[in-house]
Amino acid sequence: NDCKETATSFRQVLRSKPSPSPPSSSSRNNDDDEGRRLYLHQYADEPINAKILRSVAIHCGSNVTSVCFSSMSLTDKMVEGILPHLSKLRYLQFNGVNIGSVAARAIAIFCHDTLESLRISGCRLITSESCGWLAGIIGHNSPCLRKLRALDVSSTEVDDRGLAFLSKGLGQLEHLDLGNCPQLTFVGKGIQKHLREDGSFSSMVVLNLQGCKAVGDDG
Predict the structure, then answer these.
(1) Using one digit for the tens of pLDDT, what is the confidence trace for 85-141?
(2) With contact defined as beta carbons under 8 Å apart, do 170 and 145 qualify?
(3) Which of 166, 172, 159, 174 is nearest to 219 (CA)?
(4) DSSP per-residue letters across 5-39
(5) What pLDDT, on a 0 to 100 scale, did the predictor assign at position 70?
(6) How far is CA 87 from CA 64, 94, 109, 144, in A?
(7) Mean pLDDT: which of 28-37, 138-147, 207-216 is highest?
(8) CB atoms within 10 A of CB 148
(9) Which of 4, 128, 132, 176 would you label with 151, given CA atoms 20 to 30 Å apart?
C-alpha cells in the first residue's frame, strides 16, 4: 500500500509528476513535504471516472500531500468521494474544472486541519457561496480551512460578498488571487476595509486584482 516511490497505474491515467509549486510565504523543510504528489490528467480515449478516482484515493491516500486536477470531467460528487481518503492533503489544485459549492463544502469538511494552499482557478461554478463554505461562514457549525495560507479563486464568479466571507473566516490568508473576477467591485466598502479597518487579512503579503475591470481606483 506504499505509493510514495512509484506511480500506481489505473488504466494509465495516473501520472507520477510533481504538481506546480503552490504559492507559499516561506519554504518548508520537514518530513511532511516528502509525501506523494499526484497529477491527474484526463485523456480523451482513457476517461477518468468516479470509481477510478476513488480507487486511487484509497490506494495512495495515506501518503498523498499534493493533488492537481487538470483537464478533467470532474464533478462535485467525485470530489466528495475522494477527499475523505486524503487525510494528509496540504496542497490542492483544480484547473478549470466544473466544481462548485458542494465541492467547496467537502474541501472545508475533510481538509480543514491540513490544507495550506488551494487553487480553484478558472472554475466558473465557484461563487461567493463557495467562499462562504471554505471560510466556515455558511452552514451550522461548519469548519473553516484554518491552516490555509494561499487561496487562488481567479477567473471565477466570486463577488464582493465572497470577499467579505473570506475576510471574516479566512483572515489568516497571506496570498489571495482574485484576478479576472468580473463580479468584484468593492463599491461602498472598498478593499481598504477588508485589509485594514476591521483587522482582517493582517498577514496579507500578496493580493492580486489584475483583470478585475469593475474595481475602480477608489476601491
Answers:
(1) 999 999 999 989 999 999 999 999 999 999 999 999 999 999 999 999 999 999 888
(2) yes
(3) 159
(4) SSPPPSTT-EE--PPPPPP-SS---SGGGGSEEEE
(5) 80
(6) 8, 18, 11, 16
(7) 138-147
(8) 26
(9) 4
